[in-house]
Amino acid sequence: MTFTIRPLDPLKDASLVHGWVTDPKAAFWMMQDAKLVDVERAYMEIAADEHHHAFLGLDDGVPVFLMESYDPAHRELAGLYEARPGDVGMHFLVAPTDTPVHGFTRRVITAVMAHLFADPRTLRVVVEPDVRNTAVHALNEAVGFVPEGEIEKPEKRALLSFCTRERFEAATEVAA
């Protein structure tokens, strides 16, 4: 299964994304109470930010996941760890479904990581999920992330983890 990834259009895609980020399964996205205008505003701010980008992942033309990349030296993690040149921060969210497909989320995170590492400037991907989000910790580990330790962010206690291109390639080569 190959996904297509395209830039998110803050106005055209806001209604779709609003349904995803306010779904009970997206609790760790921290937008449960967001109104449509809040989602539009949030993604318009991202679209205008040179250090933060949002994308939709499509499966056969149908949007199935949201992905964000950011420069951790300037957003999210600025001042919380020692950023290196080539670091790229990442968030992803799979669209809610009533009929989950086994292994789908792992294929999504693999596609997200492959997309990020397709840029030769990306040397390491950085994530900071909530420490309570054990499901995403397992997914991160499956694609090569190594936890560095817990950090305190304004909105959550997070598990700072890193994945180099080599670790990603080794992890996904074994899984293939």
TrEMBL record:
Gene Ontology MF terms: N-acyltransferase activity
Functional pathway: Siderophore biosynthesis; mycobactin biosynthesis
Keywords, comma-separated and alphabetical: Transferase
Chain ranges passing through the membrane: none
Ranges for domain Acyltransferase MbtK/IucB-like conserved: 6-53
SUPFAM superfamilies per UniProt: Acyl-CoA N-acyltransferases (Nat)
Transferase recorded as keyword: yes
Entries under Gene3D superfamilies matching the protein: 3.40.630.30
GO biological process: siderophore biosynthetic process
SMART domains in UniProt: AlcB (SM01006)
Classification via Pfam families: Acetyltransf_8 (PF13523)
Protein task: Acyltransferase required for the direct transfer of medium- to long-chain fatty acyl moieties from a carrier protein (MbtL) on to the epsilon-amino group of lysine residue in the mycobactin core.
Name of this chain's protein: Lysine N-acyltransferase MbtK
Organism in which the protein naturally occurs: Streptomyces bauhiniae
